[in-house]
Amino acid sequence: MIKNIDNQACSIPRHVAIIMDGNGRWAAQNGRPRLAGHRAGVKSARRVVEACAEARVETLTLFAFSSENWQRPAEEVNALMRLFIEVLQREVSVLHDNGIRLRFIGARDNLPTILQKRIEDAENKTAANSRMTLMLAVAFGGRWDITQAIRQIAAKVDAGELKVEGIDEAMVSRHLSLALYDDPDLLIRTGGEKRVSNFLLWNLAYSEIHFTDTLWPVFDSVDLASAFEFFRQRQRRFGQLGNQKEAGAD
After folding, report:
1. If the chain, 250 residues long, is cut into consecutive pieces of 10 residues, what is the mean pLDDT of each piece?
2. Dihedral sign for Cα atoms in the order 116, 117, 119, 123
3. Residues facing 209 on adjacent strands
4. Active-site entry in 4, 6, 7, 21
5. Which helix (H) or strand (E) holds 245?
6. Fold of 15-141+183-249
7. pLDDT of amino acid 244
8. Is 98 a catalytic residue?
């Protein structure tokens, strides 16, 4: 349970996205195999999900496996797929009992059949929950997301259902993976790297970005509180001048 964040005293982002980086380096620093780092990362994810739910975050999106991660050694990829299946089997009931809705974004057709089935079952079981939405990005890439949106729109144009002149930013957004959700207010990246790594490229356009050197397996409520404090101090202008936003607030 999070004790470092007072929801009344600071501005809590409605949608938090996290690039969970550093599992492999944590394992190397501790003389353990990479899979041990990923297992430790699952424990960190559990802590953060609980903390965000306690802080009344509405949506939490975790970047679990990217489109580019398929290029890793087959042994590691296969181990990660087995870990996803294991975690779903163990954690879904706990999430459900705590009112968490589970959703997945990404090219799920590329996943093992058994994992696709577990994902579908998890989404169906938790569909009516409303305390918080936990979004897991698996086999996901920002370029893939935009590409599949373009294909869907192009198909509608080809079928005569849509004119090219009718394509605007709102329409593109409606065909992206986060179509039913607000864009992330805050992106957190752990592990010290300072890039978005082909994550939610369209949706991060005006997200505040907090980088931390903390490796994901040891990221805790203190680190989350620091990220939320960073967010609280930001002035979100969305392309306007600061005095315009202040005037709008009146």
Report:
1. 41 96 97 97 97 97 96 95 95 97 97 97 98 98 98 97 95 97 98 97 97 98 96 76 52
2. positive
3. 187
4. 21
5. helix 242-249
6. Undecaprenyl pyrophosphate synthetase (3.40.1180)
7. 54
8. no
Pseudo-torsion of CA 108, 112, 113, 114, nearest 10°?
-110
pLDDT of residue 128: 98
- Report H helices in 55-141: 74-97, 113-126
Count of CB atoms situated within 10 Å of the CB of 83:
16
Q: Which helix (H) or strand (E) holds 135?
A: strand 132-140
Question: Which pair of structure tokens corresponds to residue 88?
Answer: 């779903």
Closest by CA to 101, choosing from 181, 196, 18, is 181
DSSP letter at 41 equals H
The DSSP secondary-structure symbol of 11 reads: P
- Which pLDDT score, from 0 to 100, does residue 239 have? 59
Residue 6 pLDDT:
43
Nearest to 84 by CA among 60, 68, 108, 51: 108
DSSP string, 168-232: -HHHHHHTSTTTTSPPPSEEEE-SS--S-TTSSTTTTTT-EEEE--S-GGG--HHHHHHHHHHHH
Q: Of 4, 6, 69, 129, which one is the catalytic site residue? A: 69
Domain boundaries, the chain: 15-141+183-249
213 catalytic? Reply is no
Q: What share of the chain is helix, strand, coil (3-state, %, to 5)?
A: 50, 15, 35
Beta carbons of 192 and 24 less than 8 angstroms apart: no
Distance from C-alpha of 206 to C-alpha of 202, rounded to nearest angstrom: 9
